[in-house]
Amino acid sequence: MKHRARFTAHAASCYTSKFKQLNLTLLCTGLLGLPLMAQAEEITPINLRLATVVNTEDTYHIAAERFQQLVSEQTDGAVSVEIFPNASLGDERTLLEGMQIGTVDMGVITNGPVANFVDEFSVFELPFLFPSAESAYSVLDGEIGQEILAKLEDVNLKGLAFAERGFRNITNSQHAINAPEDLDGLTLRVIENEVYVDTFRELGANAVPMAWTEALTALQQGTIDGQENPVNAIHAFNLAETQDYLTMTRHIYAPAIFIMSLPAWNGLQVEVQDIVLDAASEASAYAREQNAIMEAEQLAELAEAGMEINQSPDIAAFQEAVAPVYEKYGDQFGDYLQRIQEEVK
Q1: What is the pLDDT of residues 182-197, one digit of tens each?
Q2: Of residues 301, 244, 284, the one with CA closest to residue 136
Q3: 84-138 pLDDT, tens per residue?
Q4: How many whole angstroms separate alpha carbon 64 and alpha carbon 53?
Q5: What is the CATH number of the domain that holds 270?
Q6: Are 51 and 213 in contact (CB under 8 A)?
Q7: Do the beta carbons of residue 256 and residue 163 sit within 8 Å?
């Protein structure tokens, strides 16, 4: 009987131990499953308003749509992105100011206007700084670019990623341009940025800084002779209708930037912040790829529309003419200019 009692007690103990172990296993399994379930359920539905000043044919819009798609996919639709093209929420300065106070959530913005808020961004505007798109990507996506991008937080903005406007070229309605002296007497719209203004004044043009929305009207009315922009913008805005000549100077590589309102960014859940960052980076890379793919086709269409295109202007003469710009601004950017020049060698 004693042996039997001991056996029964032992069996009961084993049964109890196994029962507890089973419960513990089930409990752990359940708990381990909870974060995955909770992650999908815990994302609070939110709508982000993303603005640009371009039309729906432009690379900025292509980047914005890719971003919209990625964010929706990664959040199972909990985070939606509403795109406002065509400067419907204001020009780029207005958009940046709106982001600072939280009335605009985010945008894809040209680097030039951003430099009016953080001086260091102007270093990327120096003429003939980058010999190729690949050298620009290396700097922008590397340590230098990310250091400068982070400075946006000092002005209540959040830099997400460098997208692309591309290498800028000159168009005008008066005559062909091959060398700097051909710009004498021409009135050209430039971005509202002092480096752009000084660059084109050194080249001999009458440089007029103005918002892009105003520039389109001025080109149509003939109050300015020309402008400078990458091929994608020249094509997207049908500038062949008002501009007869395109010169492929590739004088400045212009980044674009996915920028967010810092108050809006801080209001996102950490999981959503990670998704937004990754989506901006991927959308930027996609926009760069599309620019490269589309440029040859866009140039062909501009030529068919009647635009005379100079593919091989005297670049050396242009580079020599803008040397004073480096003398004026070289020390303004701390060691950034030197570091960029060393990296692109």
Answers
A1: 999 999 999 988 999 9
A2: 284
A3: 999 999 999 999 999 999 999 999 999 989 999 999 999 998 999 999 999 999 9
A4: 12
A5: 3.40.190.170
A6: no
A7: yes
CA distances from 201 to 176, 194, 196 (A): 18, 10, 9
Nearest of 117, 120, 113 to residue 329 by alpha carbon: 120
- Whole-number Å distance between alpha carbons of 53 and 104: 13
Query: In terms of DSSP bridges, do strands 106-110 and 253-261 run parallel, antiparallel, or are they unpaired?
Result: antiparallel
Compute CA distances 50 → 59, 67, 107, whole Å: 14, 10, 5
Cα distance between the two ends of the chain: 93
Does the residue 87 lie in any domain? yes
Range of the domain at 96: 46-344
- Cα Rg of the chain (Å, integer): 27
Closest CA to 251 of 163, 333, 170: 170
* pLDDT for the residue 41: 55
Global pTM reads 0.82
Domain count, the chain: 1
Any bridge partners for residue 158, and if so which? Answer: 260
> What is the rounded CA–CA span in Å between residue 249 and residue 171?
10
Indicate the DSSP class of residue 157.
Answer: E
In a domain, 36, yes or no: no
Q: Minimal CA–CA distance to 60: which of 282, 311, 267, 256?
A: 256
Residue 82 tokens, joined? 């509403």
Distance between CA atoms of residues 57 and 68, nearest Å: 16
Domain assignment of residue 25, yes or no: no
Return the bridge partners of 144, or none: none
Please check whether residue 6 lies inside any domain of the structure: no
How far is residue 306 from each of residues 238, 291, 335, measured CA to CA in Å? Answer: 11, 22, 45
